[in-house]
Each structure stands twice: as C-alpha cells, then as structure tokens.
Amino acid sequence: MLTVDFDRLGLRPGDRVIDMGCGAGRHAFEMYRRGADVVAFDQDADELAGVLELFGAMKEAGEVPDGASADIKEGDALSLPFADGEFDRVVASEVLEHIHDDVTAIKELIRVLRPGGTMAITVPRWLPEVVNWRLSPDYHNAPGGHVRIYTDHELVDKVTKGGRPNDGTPGDAMVFEGKDHAHGLHTPYWWLKCAVGVDNDQHPLVKAYHQVLVWDIMRTPRLSTATRLAEKALNPVLGKSMVLYFRKPE
C-alpha cells in the first residue's frame, strides 16, 4: 500500500534514495524494485531487522534489477548520519507528525538531499485527523503517537523555508511542486475505529471494513476494480494521507 507516487517523485534506476522513518519498509521495497540504491532509515531496530530480511528475500527471488542495492541504517531523524547532498531522492512518509522538533528533522532531510533532487513528504490530512482526535483521545495519546495535525499550508511553509539558515542569511529554499491525497478508503475505517474504540478490533463493523481493506490491498479480482474506483473518488475529499512533493534548487 504505497502513499508516494514514485513517477511523480522522478525516481530512476541507480538513484540513491533514503526512506526516512521507513517502518516496515513498504516504500523502501518499491524503490528497490525500481532499481534504486536504497537506505531504509529508522530508529526501531526490530523493524529494520525485518526490512533487511525482506531485502534479502527480494534479491534471492529475482525481484530487483541488476545494480540495485539496499541496506538499513538505525539512527535519529534529528541528526542523520549522512553527508550533505548524499541522496538524489528523499522520502519521509507518515513520520513528521510523530516528531516534536519537526523543523530540525525537515532541515536534516533537506541537508542530505542533493541540489536538483526531489523529496516526498506524507502526513495525515487535516480533516480526517481532526475527526479522529475528537472521536478518541486514545488515537493519538499512545506512546510514540501523533503530536500535531498539519494543514497543507503549514507543512509547505516549513519545508520551503527549511533550507534557510537560522541566522537570517540567504540560503537555498525548497520549491513546492505539488500535492496529492491518498487512502480515501482508510478514512472512514479509522473514524469507525475511533468511534467504537481504537483497540476494539473485534467489533463486527470494524472486522467487516478491515476485510474490505485487505481485499483491496491484496487486489482481490472481484473487488479490486470497485475499490480502486471508490478510492479514486474519495481521495480528493477524504484521502487520509496528504502527499507533498518538493525539489531542491540547483
């Protein structure tokens, strides 16, 4: 279940890319399949171990082209252990809403992106997220949970200004290149979970809706066309994730 459109990001075989806050690795795996030189970065060692194992399985199964490479790196988003301009593409999907000092994290993402490189940042969309927070404090109060709700204007402003030094001297600013929304089918599901209890996975309506999402992810033939059309219609209005694309000036 991908959130980022890699064609829009401009990903090409041989690009060096970082998936910052990779989690279970869904975007890292797709970039590896497309022939990139991938670094899956996270602070969770257990998650990274699983990602590394699947990287190896993909290689053995012949799912990646010759020349593609992939590795993991554990560390802190506020101090990325990489050189300035090391990456051609940067992905940070569903990460910044968890980080208290998001401005520093954004500056680090910009620092490691080469001039001319592109970045995709995804966060929960404002309206679906506001409803979730109001329906259930447990949705965001869990350890490591969401600490803020972004509007598109706030996040665009933070990223486009993130390349400027704190001393006020001129510096490179990121260029905003566009916005998408994704996962429209997931918004009603989370509203339902928050209404009945975020941990109440055995509620009949939650179980039924979850099965529809599983069918969609697995592309079950008898439902995939209907769910694709439904999600395409819902994304502009209720897409749970907001996807922002940026370019670093040459």
TrEMBL record:
User: Does the keyword field hold Transferase?
Assistant: yes
Q: Which Pfam families match?
A: Methyltransf_11 (PF08241)
A GO molecular function term, named singly, is: S-adenosylmethionine-dependent methyltransferase activity
Q: Which UniProt keywords apply?
A: Methyltransferase, Transferase
InterPro entries, alphabetized = Erg6_SMT_methyltransf, Methyltransf_11, SAM-dependent_MTases_sf
Limits of the Methyltransferase type domain: 19-121
Task: List the GO biological process terms.
Answer: methylation
Q: What is this protein called?
A: Class I SAM-dependent methyltransferase
- Organism of origin is Nocardioides pocheonensis
